[in-house]
Amino acid sequence: MRRIQKNHGIQLQAIAGTYVVLLGWDMSQQDSKGLLGFAIHRTDHTENEAYWLKGMKTFEETDPGHGPGVLVSTRQHPIQGFTWSDFSAKPRHDYTYHVVALRGKPTGLREEETVQISVTTESEDTGIHAVWFNRGAAASQEYARRFQNRKPSDVGPPAFQWLSRGLEEAMLAFIAQAQNAQWGLRVAAYQFSYPPVLKALCGAHMNSVDVQIIYDARAAEVANPNREAVAEAQIQDLCKERTTNPSMIAHNKFIVLLHDEKPVAVWTGSTNFTDGGILGHSNVGHVVRDAIVAQAYLDYWEQLHDDLAVETLRPWVTKTTPAPDPGDKSPEGTSVIFSPRSDLKSLDWYAELAKSASSLLCMTFPFGINKRFHPVFEAPTSGLRYALLDSAGNQKEAKEKVLQLRRKVFNRFAVGNFMRQNLFDRWVHEQLSGLNRHAQYIHTKFMLVDPLDTDPIVVTGSANFSDASTKDNDENMLVIRGDKSVADIYLTEYFRLWNHYAFREWAASQKVPSAASPRHLETDDRWREPYYRDTDRARQRMIFAGTLRASL
Fold first, then answer.
1. 362: helix, coil or strand?
2. Structural domains present in the chain
3. 411-415 and 262-269: which strand pairing?
4. 135 touches 164 (CB < 8 A)
5. Structure confidence by residue, pLDDT tens digits, 516-538
6. For a surface tag, which of 96, 336, 341, 436 has the fewest beta carbons within 10 Å of its beta carbon?
7. Hey, how many other C-beta atoms are within 10 angstroms of the C-beta on 320?
8. Rounded to two decimals, what is the model's pTM?
């Protein structure tokens, strides 16, 4: 849900996802003179709570001197910026936010211009679509506060539940819909070793559900854990291994649900059926309840089940799910693109689609930016293009390209990292969960094209926007056009992760703690200056308040 309100010269936009509400506001440079920042008050009408939201930065003069990990009220220590995300929201809750301009002095802040907005957060299950993101950040201040940086396996269920954030529960609930012989489940898996999932599939089989599973068994690194888990769950008779084309990978992670032998829904996304996939790096599970989409996945699964040579599989996939023509957008609604393909037309189309974004592009790149997307981030735009990377790459050339692209005013990049040491007061030490060997931070593969416009496009699935994901690997992608609820969920989760890692990347780059400390707020209005020049901050101010789109 997104709404815009104007009052006292302030325009405020709220974009409500499921667990995040993203707020953006704007006011003229003249009206903002003398501002020391903004305070945000939230009323939760669902739980009958009301309080000022809290942050980390303080005025030096009024710093309360709290210990590590303690937050402070934005009413006494305001936000010196024009965007803020409420990461403590809950699904299906009614909220009212007041954004209040503060002037005066740190010791005597005055409330002046104010604007309020009311929104209802999205349900994870919107009907045709249902979307769940895991926490995706074991290395976080909140994890450190809650669990004292102990490994999830040492903490046990409370840590698992917090990290899952509903993703595991939703996956198991999807399987649990199949209750008897009238139902069927078709699973296509890459990494397939998470005991609760295998146990749930075994249980469905014991209830006479028609369960059939294919999983990757090409490389020992993946095949051996899969085989061991399957043997432990005693579901060997339900499984078939993918062994043809040993240099490629069966990278899908989907389940088709059938009723009376007809497909009715599909679970897909980026989440491997492993503890690292569900509880570790960032992932999404996405359900589509559409018979046509589910039938496409079932037809695809049947081709994969035959373990065809890639030379046979490619023509079938390319013909069955053709890439849109150059310059065309996807049809309204939900369509699919599968791999492996006979050519790279679909990857070229993704790049053209990304370049077509007029105000806002958001992409994740777990394994680096494919060269076809370099022109996307090189082309000037009046909006912003965001990239969230697990790393800048291992090769010198790739790192230099990322450095070159992120210098442009219309690009904003963030690379996965964590707080290895306490450089800043009130920030506590973090450590990784240890659940992932590859892509420790970002594993989602999705693209948002003008997500705040009236015709947003979401591309999401298992493919990494790469040559290998297009021509060699088994992959699936959803292309969802025109669904603002789905776009809002993905957008708010994207910036939850982007903000998290953007700061940590910056912090990790600071070698001298005394020179790096961002602890104290400005005591006058000089903080405003970057927001009213041609900077990425100025563009962000206008995009998220909704004033840039109005000027396009």
1. strand
2. 2-123+527-551 (2.60.40.10), 129-506 (3.30.870.10)
3. unpaired
4. yes
5. 555 799 999 999 999 999 999 99
6. 96
7. 13
8. 0.95
